[in-house]
């Protein structure tokens, strides 16, 4: 009888231990999920997002950051497959994409965090630096193929348009906003990254490179007041159809005043269901004052928060 009772008590204690261990593991798993920040970022914004994540990590010591820098299309697919729960991209989710999230019992919180411009860059020795949006449209639709077909073009050579990735947000912008959703045509060449685009322009005097403007900062940790020191040229662009228009470069001021035409919105999207997770804290950090000040002071992007533009007289 005593032996039977001892075995029964031992079995009960083992069961209690196993139950407690399982609960402890579940609690640990839940805690890990709340500390992990799996984020996919459109590679166009890698320079400034590395700075954003660095400051976030310094102020949220429990956060376990796991960033992935990839094409915009890849970032959205990772979110829809629930491989990450935070992304930074240049468009909101479509109705069909939101429906896919609901099948995972998730919903997407979406917030505008900045306005980005992409720059058109040419070789340092290229004399042709003025271009109209209509001419860009004709280049990516195959109607303009040579430099001397541009209104301000002087060279007889063929234009080579180089960009980062066929699935990038830049290509989507050109396809949707410039070509009405039709496939791009002409002398177009994917380089694989923004840095590779810049190098291709340095090597090819006939190339036009399409890059996220923030990549022009290089190792500079602050906003560039001008692009004069670069070893490439940044083209001046106009959307005007006037005979003698004003052309603009993608400076923060020109983006803020809506002078520079090649801009798009930047969004942070989160599907994390936790209220107090580090991923949710990052979401609010990027749209909050600290994150916005980094965009304002350390990048070529325009933050979504209101900014003051003042005239300054220097005597």
Automatic annotation (TrEMBL):
UniProt keyword annotation of Signal present: yes
Domain PBP: 36-286
Record bears the keyword Signal: yes
InterPro entries listed in its UniProt record: PBP_domain, Phosphate_ABC_transporter
Source superkingdom: Bacteria
One Pfam family hit: PBP_like_2
Transmembrane segment boundaries: none
Signal peptide start and end residues: 1-20
Keywords for this protein: Signal
PANTHER family: PERIPLASMIC PHOSPHATE BINDING COMPONENT OF PHOSPHATE ABC TRANSPORTER, PHOSPHATE-BINDING PROTEIN PSTS
Protein's recorded name: PBP domain-containing protein
Organism name: Alloprevotella tannerae ATCC 51259
Upper classification of the organism: Bacteria, Pseudomonadati, Bacteroidota, Bacteroidia, Bacteroidales
């Amino acid at each position: 009888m005593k032996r039977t009772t001892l075995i029964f008590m031992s079995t009960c204690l083992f069961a209690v231990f196993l139950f407690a261990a399982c609960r402890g593991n579940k609690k640990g798993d839940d805690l890990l999920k709340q500390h992990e920040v799996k984020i996919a970022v459109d590679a166009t914004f890698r320079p400034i997002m590395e700075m954003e994540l660095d400051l976030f990590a310094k102020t949220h010591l429990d956060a376990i950051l796991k960033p992935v820098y990839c094409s915009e299309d890849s970032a959205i697919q990772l979110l829809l497959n629930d491989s990450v729960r935070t992304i930074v991209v240049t468009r909101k989710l479509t109705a069909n994409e939101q429906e896919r999230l609901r099948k995972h019992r998730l919903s997407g919180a979406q917030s505008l965090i900045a306005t980005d411009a992409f720059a058109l860059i040419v070789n340092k020795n290229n004399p042709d630096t003025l271009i109209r949006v209509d001419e860009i449209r004709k280049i990516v639709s195959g109607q303009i193929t040579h430099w001397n077909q541009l209104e301000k073009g002087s060279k007889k050579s063929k234009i080579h348009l180089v960009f980062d990735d066929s699935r990038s947000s830049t290509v989507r912008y050109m396809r949707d906003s410039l070509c009405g959703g039709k496939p791009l045509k002409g002398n177009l060449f994917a380089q694989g990254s923004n840095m590779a685009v810049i190098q291709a322009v340095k090597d090819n005097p006939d190339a036009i490179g399409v890059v996220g403007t923030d990549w022009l900062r290089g190792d500079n940790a602050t906003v560039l007041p001008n692009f004069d020191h670069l070893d490439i040229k940044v083209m001046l662009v106009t959307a005007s159809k006037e005979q003698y228009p004003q052309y603009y470069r993608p400076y923060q001021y020109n983006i803020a005043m809506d002078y520079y035409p090649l801009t798009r919105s930047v969004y942070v999207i989160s599907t994390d269901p936790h209220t107090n997770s580090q991923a949710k804290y990052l979401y609010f950090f990027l749209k909050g004052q600290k994150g916005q000040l980094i965009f304002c002071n350390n990048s070529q992007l325009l933050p979504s928060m209101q900014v003051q533009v003042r005239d300054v007289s220097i005597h």
